[in-house]
Design brief:
Elements: H1 2-24, H2 27-56
Helix pairs in contact: 1-2
């Protein structure tokens, strides 16, 4: 559940950077957004692996 909470926090951070990039044209926010999206991908993959392992352990 820790990883899922971390995923939600990443989404909140990414949302702020997305708003700054798309609405204000802040290029640095775009870079942070791209980084956050990569972290989301990695975290989501970790969660999928964890769920699969737990499901198959039964």
């Amino acid at each position: 559940m820790e990883k899922f909470t971390a995923l939600k926090e990443l989404i909140e951070t990414a949302e702020k950077d997305a708003a700054a990039f798309y609405e204000k044209g802040n290029n640095a926010a775009g870079t942070r957004l791209r980084n956050a999206m990569q972290q989301l991908k990695v975290t989501a993959t970790d969660i999928r692996k964890e769920v699969t392992e737990k499901k198959n352990a039964k």
